[in-house]
User: What shape does this take?
Amino acid sequence: MKLIGIIIIGSIFCLGVLFGFFFQHYPYIQWNPEIKIYEVFQVITTLFIALAIPFFIKKWIDDSRVVKTLLNKESDDISVEAKKINEKFISSYNTGNITSQDKKFINITFSQIENLIQTFESSIRVCFNNRCNSQFQDFKIAYLEYWHNVTSGDLMSDSFTIIDENYLSFHSEEYSKFLQALRKFNIFLQKQ
Amino acid sequence: MNLKIIIMNNLEIHVATEFNKALGARYIYEGQFSGQQFLETLLSPRFEEAKEKKVKLVIYLDGVLGYPSSFVSGSFGKLSMSHGAESVLATIEFVSSNSLRIEKIVREITKPIKK
Assistant: This one.
């Protein structure tokens, strides 16, 4: 890489020398003394900007868009898994009872969300280094609170067999808080 | 002079194979494979043994269908309340492919919920 850099710088220098030589000795090109040096600089800058926009800036924008789309997809996966838990509570409310299989499903889904959060965190680290650490930590705390509030009460007890309106509305509130935290983090990511 | 070198091996708990894959609630009266059952049959005795032998207690968390907060609170939370968070964290080492799984248990140890 260092060698390539030296070659590029050397080539630019040689091109500059050649251009100067050509400019000085080519009979059809003559410096118009009315032209100010800053005007020449202005033209060169305009040309550079015109070339840089399609070649570099557009590429940076496209790259950043691809990264954000991928991260968005990972965030959607988390939201889809969380939705499964919400749907399980709604269906248990509709059937009138919650079985031990349903509880197992809820625990497995929470575990799956944790795996997705870990992958999401790794991707964010790769894309943004440690720039999003504090915001991601807030999101993680929101997840831990959601998990804690849902599974810390009587849910796992054998005698807990009915999902009533109170529990459904309690879960719905916790679920919304978690989704809000996820959306808040997504908005932050989009601004990066 | 004969020198005897005794290598003290760390103690281990494999939650999925030694206890169960599907974990239950907080207390024994709430159903099978509760946090209290885990604490009384596995966690507490091995923890005491590890402290006595001055070795680590390595707990393998993977392979379980998920850790309900009530189970974590009834086992690790209670252990922390009786021995102190510092002593528990100095003795126990967690192994999991997911750091969040470890984080939530450590959180319960550092801030155990009285219930």
Remarks:
- Helices of chain A lie at 2-25, 37-95, 100-128, 133-151, 165-191.
